[in-house]
Amino acid sequence: MTLNPAAATVSAPKNDSLPVLKEGLPAGLTTDEAQRRLGTSGRNAVPDTSVHPARMALIKFWAPVPWMLEAAVVLEISLGKYVEAAIIGALLLFNAALGFVQESRAQATLAALKSRLALTATVRRDGRWVNIPATELVIGDIAKLSLGGVVAADMRLSSGEVLLDQSMLTGESVPIEAGSGVETFAGALVRRGEAVAEVTATGVRTKFGRTAELVRTAHVASSQEKAVLRVVRNLAAFNGIVIAVLMVYAYFLGLPLAEIVPLVLTAVLASIPVALPATFTLAGALGAKALAKRGVLPTRLSAVDEAATMDVLCVDKTGTLTLNALQVTTVRAMSGFDSPHVLALAALASADGGQDPVDAAIRTEASKNCVSDAPDMIDFLPFDPAKKMSEATATDASGAHVRIVKGAYAMVIALTQPSTSASASADDLEKQGFRVLAVAVGPQGGMTLAGLIALSDPPRPDSTALIAELRGLGVQSLMVTGDAPATAAIVASAVGLNGAVCPAGAIPSGVEPGKFAVFAGVMPEDKYKLVKEFQRGGHTVGMCGDGANDAPALRQAQIGIAVSTATDVAKSAAGMVLIQPGLAGIVAAVKEGRVTFQRILTYTLTSIIKKIVTVLFLAIGLVMTGHAILTPLLMVIVMITGDFLSMSLTTDNVEPSAYPNAWRIGNLTIAGVILGFCLLAFCVAVLGIGKFNLNLGTGALCTLTFIVLVFGGQATVYAVRQRQHLWRARPSRWLVASTFADVLIASTLAVVGIAMTPLPVSVVAGVLLASVVFSFGLDVVKIPVFARLRIS
């Protein structure tokens, strides 16, 4: 249901002055009065917080990497280098388009998933019952609640009786009986009965709407966003210093300004991790595509990466760990009866049709245990909230009339002879978290207790295995529910969540996941706060849920996961939606997320290495030759052949880690510097051979610089793509194909002399062979570096 706020200060007006019809039913609001209140309080809907496509597209140009590219375009144009400016502009557009398209696809899929018919409400207007869009409800409206309908706003019942399912709001799986004076909330479902109610709150002022407002304000920056920013910041700081030194040295060397400016521009281009955001997006998109085949829909691409780093998973009980469907768990027959007969009697005192979940559960269980001598029903009286029981009149085998009652133990036992054993049995079942019903049979005034029926919302068949598998992956699972502590503890124990239960109430500040296994009796705000407390403790938090009450925490968590039966609000707030029943998709998300993480980690590390090396190599080359060893155009070609073709790493064959990953950018940068100096030494050696042994001219040295950066970059990719030795796993076909294309393009340009001075085939082949040998040497250095810096 869509709810929307307008003036948050409007409160429910008193309706004592409403006209009353002769039969005692208020005439409701007039059309004019309803329109006036609608104008004051606003529509009964939450504001659409989705980003407009145009704004979404423009955002792609507003970030550190786009800023660098935009600055480079301006510099190229100012120097009259329009071809280079056009190429850099194309790279900028490619980055933006890739991110925009992938996010748009995810949002479009979610919109299709959420699509449904608009809700309507039956209200009293001008003394008549009329149907109106639920968004036009206002405070003071008199509305009718009917079987199967959705409560469209917060209301107070004025007459009638209904059975309300509020599990999507409160997390409580057992429906509640509601009569005159009882308040119900927007989003509740009417399972039985009919009632008239007065609207008391609309929009964000409803319990449902306040939850939606929490969703709107909840946000946490993804670790992926933080990683990109830290990489860009570290590279900018390091390379900025090198470029400043380069400029000073070029000035004192006496180079003309016409040569210094292109040199600086080349260095600036070399320092930009141009394809890093696009690679993150592409890796997330490929991971999302793989997850979709396994029943998981990521609605935010960053959620794929977050699944890899998740170390705490908060799981809702109702509908997530459990089936959200009442079932008969235990039948305790009294003396003279057996379980099948108790169920048969209870079924006679249960409504047919399946709308009441309690009656449906009893009739389903009774049908599995048919008895041949069950009484024949003559009359049936549905559940009476005042008496807290339903009853039936039937004829037994002798033709005599008997009365059968089924309901709350305290009410039914009052009609029979007191029984100490029955009371002890009922207390025992209630302590185990079951809902207990009593069944009695006999003539009026002389009834006998037939037995007790215990009902529960059972765990899903895969919940225990899921919790165990997640534990094996290093993810700690916690139950977070609005249910009572006793019931929550029993379900938690059944699915393997063993540990203390946090007392109901405010979430303790500084709480740690290891202290409790269960958080019970929590409100939406408490779940939201709990997630923030865990995040404050340095944890990457996942939140799995299905109801509107879970939405704020789903939004705040780094990875919010909505199950297949979740409300639209929960799906909108989540980063992932399970589109198939069960919870196995969470394990799939963790494993696929860790595969994606390894691919992105490799690309990020190679990007750090190459960006550091290229800028330093330009500076050293200037010292060795007295001239720039690379032109801006050649630098752009290196960016295309190196950075963008290396994006094929997003398809590489990798093994997911056995424990949660973490973005240790500091360690990654140190590793990049160490391995980068190895690559730098190789590049400088090749340049030295070209200048001092082969006596190459300035133009040929530029070409040599170009091919050693391309070939050395590819050698680095193969050396660092595996955390163990490079031959441990076969590279993907796309990676091999892109390497072949990269080497072929660079070799052809260098040998033919397109946009550069040509080099002999023997020189190009020699650099290529030396690069292959270098990759094995770098592999030897990599192993202890990765182990020391915990890069895995």
TrEMBL record:
<dbReference type="GO" id="GO:0016020">
    <property type="term" value="C:membrane"/>
</dbReference>
<feature type="transmembrane region" description="Helical">
    <location>
        <begin position="260"/>
        <end position="286"/>
    </location>
</feature>
<dbReference type="InterPro" id="IPR001757">
    <property type="entry name" value="P_typ_ATPase"/>
</dbReference>
<feature type="transmembrane region" description="Helical">
    <location>
        <begin position="732"/>
        <end position="755"/>
    </location>
</feature>
<dbReference type="InterPro" id="IPR044492">
    <property type="entry name" value="P_typ_ATPase_HD_dom"/>
</dbReference>
<feature type="transmembrane region" description="Helical">
    <location>
        <begin position="629"/>
        <end position="647"/>
    </location>
</feature>
<protein>
    <submittedName>
        <fullName>Plasma membrane H+-ATPase</fullName>
    </submittedName>
</protein>
<dbReference type="GO" id="GO:0005524">
    <property type="term" value="F:ATP binding"/>
</dbReference>
<dbReference type="InterPro" id="IPR018303">
    <property type="entry name" value="ATPase_P-typ_P_site"/>
</dbReference>
<dbReference type="InterPro" id="IPR023299">
    <property type="entry name" value="ATPase_P-typ_cyto_dom_N"/>
</dbReference>
<keyword id="KW-0812">Transmembrane</keyword>
<feature type="transmembrane region" description="Helical">
    <location>
        <begin position="600"/>
        <end position="623"/>
    </location>
</feature>
<dbReference type="InterPro" id="IPR004014">
    <property type="entry name" value="ATPase_P-typ_cation-transptr_N"/>
</dbReference>
<feature type="domain" description="Cation-transporting P-type ATPase N-terminal">
    <location>
        <begin position="21"/>
        <end position="81"/>
    </location>
</feature>
<dbReference type="Pfam" id="PF00122">
    <property type="entry name" value="E1-E2_ATPase"/>
</dbReference>
<feature type="transmembrane region" description="Helical">
    <location>
        <begin position="696"/>
        <end position="720"/>
    </location>
</feature>
<dbReference type="InterPro" id="IPR008250">
    <property type="entry name" value="ATPase_P-typ_transduc_dom_A_sf"/>
</dbReference>
<dbReference type="Pfam" id="PF00690">
    <property type="entry name" value="Cation_ATPase_N"/>
</dbReference>
<dbReference type="GO" id="GO:0016887">
    <property type="term" value="F:ATP hydrolysis activity"/>
</dbReference>
<keyword id="KW-1133">Transmembrane helix</keyword>
<dbReference type="InterPro" id="IPR023214">
    <property type="entry name" value="HAD_sf"/>
</dbReference>
<dbReference type="InterPro" id="IPR059000">
    <property type="entry name" value="ATPase_P-type_domA"/>
</dbReference>
<dbReference type="GO" id="GO:0015662">
    <property type="term" value="F:P-type ion transporter activity"/>
</dbReference>
<dbReference type="InterPro" id="IPR036412">
    <property type="entry name" value="HAD-like_sf"/>
</dbReference>
<dbReference type="InterPro" id="IPR023298">
    <property type="entry name" value="ATPase_P-typ_TM_dom_sf"/>
</dbReference>
<keyword id="KW-0472">Membrane</keyword>
<keyword id="KW-0067">ATP-binding</keyword>
<feature type="transmembrane region" description="Helical">
    <location>
        <begin position="761"/>
        <end position="781"/>
    </location>
</feature>
<feature type="transmembrane region" description="Helical">
    <location>
        <begin position="235"/>
        <end position="254"/>
    </location>
</feature>
<feature type="transmembrane region" description="Helical">
    <location>
        <begin position="668"/>
        <end position="690"/>
    </location>
</feature>
<dbReference type="Pfam" id="PF00702">
    <property type="entry name" value="Hydrolase"/>
</dbReference>
<keyword id="KW-1278">Translocase</keyword>
<keyword id="KW-0547">Nucleotide-binding</keyword>
